[in-house]
C-alpha cells in the first residue's frame, strides 16, 4: 500500500492527500456553533502531530472511534496553531493491509548503551537466589529479553518511545545502585534486582508494536504492578528464602509510592523508599526533557503531568562527556538470519546460533573489560568474520604478542593504524609483526 507523506514532511502551510497514518486518542467535542468535531493525534515512524476533523457526522464519528489506520487528506496550519493538522477527509484501512515498517519508529541512537548498562547491572548481582530470579524472569520465554529491550514504558506519561522501558529501567536501577553507596546498610542486591524487575508487567499491560502504548485488556483490568508481581512469582524457585521473597514482593507492590498513584502498598523499608523515589525521579526528569524539547520559541513554562517545567534559555551548552560520545557508536547487536554451528575459539565447544547479517566464522569469548563503552562486556561471545576487511573505527579481533585473541577498535589515520581500547589501562598499540588483526567483529551474543 502507498504510504503517501510522512509526518516529518507535514510542514506549516503544506497540504497532503491520500497519506496513511495511525490515529491515536480520538476525542469528539462540540464547537461553539454546536457542530461536533474530533481531536486526535496522527503518527507514523517519523513522528506525531495533533490533528482536527471538523463537522463530523454520527456515521463518521463511529468510523473514527472504531478504526486505527486511515488514509487522510488535509493541510497543516500556519498561523496561531502552526503545526496542527486540519484533516478534510479520512478513509479507514484494515490493519492486515499495513506495512509495519512505516509505523515502527526507529530505536533511539543511545538504545544500545542502555541495553549494555542493563545487562551490566544484571551481571553485578551477587546473591545467587536473586541472580537466578533475573535469569528466569528475563529468559522465559526465550524472547522475553528482546521484547523488554524494545518496549515502551508508558502510553504518554514518560519514556513512551520504543526502547523507553529499558531506558527507564536502567536509569532507576543505576540510581538505586548509587543510593546504596550513600546508605551502605541498604541491601544493594535486593533494591537493584527489584529496580530491574519493577516494570516487567508493562510487557503485558501495553501494546509494543504498531499500536505501541495502547492498553491491553490485562492492562486496563489488572495493571502492570499486579501483572509484574505474577510474572515474578512464577519465576521464583522453590528454594527461594521466604523472608527475601516477602521483602522483594513488598518493593514491587510499593514502587509507585502512594495508593493514589496505583501502589497496592506504600513503602515500609529503606529499599522500598529508595526504589519508589528513583522510579519517580526517572519519570519526572523524562517528562522535563520532553517539555523542553517541544517548547515553542520564547516559551518560559510548560505543563508536564502535574507540575510545571521551566523551558526558557539556560544560556549554556552542557559539555560533551565520554558517556555521551559512547552513545553514538555503531551498535553491535544485529537481528539474526541464517542458522549455523560455530566453534568457540580456544575451546572444544561449538554453539548452534543464528548468524548476524554480516556473517561469521567463529565465536570469541570476551574476558577483558577493555571495550565496555563500545558495548562489549566480559562474558560476551562475539562473532568474528575472518574475510571481512576491517575499516576505520570497526571492532576487530586481534592477537597481541602471541597472547589469546581479544577485542580492540581499529583507528586508521592516513598510513597509521592503531588498536585502541575504551579503558586507559590497556595501551594503544600500533599494528606490527607481533600485533595483528585476525577478523572483524560482526555482532555478539549476550547471555544473562
Question: How would you characterize this protein structure?
Answer:
The protein is of the alpha+beta class and 448 residues long. The protein has 3 domains: 7-102, Beta Barrel (OB fold (Dihydrolipoamide Acetyltransferase, E2P)), CATH 2.40.50; 111-292, Orthogonal Bundle (Hypothetical protein af1432); 339-445, Umud Fragment, subunit A. It contains 12 helices and 16 strands. It has helices at residues 58-66, 111-124, 128-139, 144-150, 164-182, 188-197, 202-205, 217-221, 224-235, 242-253, 270-293, 322-326; strands at 15-30, 36-44, 47-53, 69-76, 85-93, 301-304, 307-310, 339-343, 350-354, 362-365, 381-385, 395-400, 406-413, 416-420, 429-430, 435-445. A 7-stranded antiparallel sheet has the order 10-11-16-12-13-14-15, with no helix packed on it. A 5-stranded mixed β-barrel has the order 1-2-3-5-4. The chain has a two-stranded antiparallel sheet with strand order 6-7. Helix 2 (111-124) packs antiparallel against helix 6, helix 3 packs parallel to helix 6 (188-197) and helix 6 (188-197) packs across helix 11 (270-293). Mean pLDDT is 85; it is low at 322-338.
Amino acid at each position: 500500500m502507498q504510504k503517501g507523506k510522512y509526518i516529518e514532511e507535514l510542514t506549516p502551510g503544506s497540504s497532503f492527500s491520500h497519506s496513511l497514518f495511525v490515529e491515536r486518542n480520538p476525542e469528539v467535542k462540540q464547537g461553539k456553533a454546536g457542530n461536533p468535531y474530533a481531536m486526535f493525534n496522527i503518527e507514523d515512524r517519523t513522528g506525531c502531530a495533533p490533528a482536527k476533523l471538523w463537522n463530523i457526522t454520527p456515521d463518521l464519528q463511529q468510523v473514527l472511534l472504531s478504526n486505527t489506520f486511515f488514509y487522510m487528506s488535509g493541510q497543516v496550519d500556519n498561523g496561531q496553531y502552526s503545526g496542527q493538522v486540519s484533516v478534510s477527509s479520512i478513509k479507514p484501512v484494515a490493519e492486515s493491509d499495513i506495512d509495519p515498517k512505516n509505523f515502527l519508529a526507529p530505536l533511539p541512537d543511545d538504545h544500545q548503551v542502555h541495553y549494555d548498562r542493563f545487562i551490566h547491572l544484571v551481571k553485578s548481582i551477587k546473591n545467587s537466589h536473586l541472580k537466578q530470579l533475573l535469569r528466569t524472569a528475563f529468559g522465559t520465554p526465550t524472547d522475553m529479553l528482546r521484547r523488554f529491550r524494545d518496549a515502551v514504558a508508558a502510553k504518554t506519561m514518560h519514556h513512551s518511545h520504543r526502547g523507553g522501558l529499558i531506558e527507564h529501567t536502567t536509569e532507576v536501577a543505576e540510581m538505586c545502585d548509587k543510593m546504596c553507596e550513600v546508605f551502605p546498610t541498604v541491601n544493594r542486591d535486593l533494591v537493584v534486582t527489584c529496580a530491574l524487575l519493577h516494570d516487567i508487567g508493562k510487557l503485558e499491560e501495553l501494546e509494543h508494536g504498531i499500536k505501541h502504548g495502547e492498553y491491553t485488556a490485562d492492562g486496563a483490568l489488572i495493571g502492570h504492578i499486579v501483572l509484574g508481581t505474577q510474572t515474578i512469582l512464577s519465576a521464583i524457585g522453590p528454594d527461594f528464602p521466604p523472608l527475601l521473597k516477602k521483602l522483594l514482593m513488598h518493593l514491587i507492590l510499593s514502587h509507585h509510592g502512594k495508593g493514589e498513584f496505583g501502589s497496592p502498598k506504600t513503602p515500609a523499608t529503606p529499599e522500598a523508599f529508595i526504589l519508589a523515589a528513583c522510579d519517580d525521579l526517572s519519570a519526572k526528569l523524562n517528562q522535563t526533557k520532553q517539555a523542553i524539547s517541544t517548547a515553542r520559541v520564547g516559551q518560559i513554562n510548560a505543563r508536564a503531568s502535574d507540575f510545571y517545567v521551566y523551558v526558557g534559555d539556560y544560556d549554556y551548552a552542557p559539555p560533551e562527556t565520554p558517556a555521551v560520545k559512547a552513545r553514538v557508536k555503531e551498535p553491535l547487536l544485529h537481528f539474526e538470519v541464517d542458522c549455523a554451528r560455530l566453534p568457540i575459539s580456544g575451546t572444544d565447544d561449538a554453539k548452534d546460533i543464528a548468524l548476524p547479517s554480516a556473517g561469521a566464522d567463529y565465536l570469541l569469548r570476551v574476558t577483558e573489560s577493555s571495550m565496555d563503552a563500545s558495548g562489549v562486556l566480559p562474558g560476551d561471545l562475539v562473532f568474528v568474520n575472518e574475510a571481512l576487511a576491517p575499516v576505520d573505527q570497526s571492532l576487530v579481533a586481534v592477537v597481541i604478542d602471541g597472547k589469546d585473541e581479544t577485542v580492540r577498535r581499529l583507528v586508521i589515520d592516513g598510513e597509521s593504524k592503531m588498536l585502541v581500547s575504551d579503558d586507559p589501562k590497556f595501551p594503544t598499540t600500533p599494528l606490527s609483526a607481533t600485533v595483528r588483526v585476525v577478523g572483524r567483529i560482526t555482532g555478539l551474543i549476550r547471555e544473562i
